[in-house]
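Figure 2 data, in text form.
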Amino acid sequence: MIDPSARGLALFDLDHTLIPLDSDHGFGEWMCELGWTDADGFRQANDQFYADYKAACLDLSAYVRFSTAPWRARSREEQAWAVQGFLDQVIRPRLHPQAQALVDHHRQQGDWLAIVTATNEFVSRPVAELFRPDEILAVNLCRDEAGNMTGEIDGVPTYQAGKITRVESWLSGLGRSLASFDRVSFYSDSPNDLPLLERVGDPVATNPSPELEAIALERGWRILKLFE
C-alpha cells in the first residue's frame, strides 16, 4: 500500500529501460513463433512499425490494431497460455538484476512507483508486474460486450505527451499532483518520452538511444546504463 504522505515519485518507462527489448515488438515475434500469424508478412510490417516508433512518427492506433490482431480472436485460455510462454521464454531470461535493484531503491526510499509504457496493456501489464510497481499505466484497449479486448485504444494512450496526461490523471485520483512531490524522477530510453522527461525535476536517460543521449548530454541530465 502506498504512503499517502510520500514525498518522492519514481516513474519508469518499460521497454529498453527496465527490460532490454521492446515487449510489443517482441510479442509480435512470439506470435510468429507460435504460428498465430503469417510470419513473413507480419514480421515485415512489425519491423516497419517499430522503425516508425524509433523515428517518433508511429501511427499508434494503426499499430495497435495490427499488433493485437493475431491473438484477439483466440480464447482467453489460449491468450493466457501465450502470455505465460512469452514471460517464461522471452522476458524472464532477459531480466537484469540492476533494473529490479533500481526500482527497489526507490521503493526503499518510500517513493510511489509507476511504470508508464506505450505498449498495450495485454502485453505490458504481465511484464510490468514483475517489478511490483504501485501502478501500471499502459495503452488501454476497448472491450466488446463480452468483455474481450478489441484492437481499438480506450482513452488517452500513454504515448508521447499522453504519458503526462495519464500520470496526472492517476495522481489526481489519489489527491496528488506532480507538484505535490519534493522529487519526481522519470527513467526512459526514448526521445518519444521527451514531454514527460522535460516535465519532471529528475529526468534520467536510461540505456538511452543515441538521440536521447545527445539531448541528455546537452541538457545536463543524468545518464544511466543498466545494460548494454
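Caption note: Residues 86 and 106 are 27 Å apart (CA to CA).
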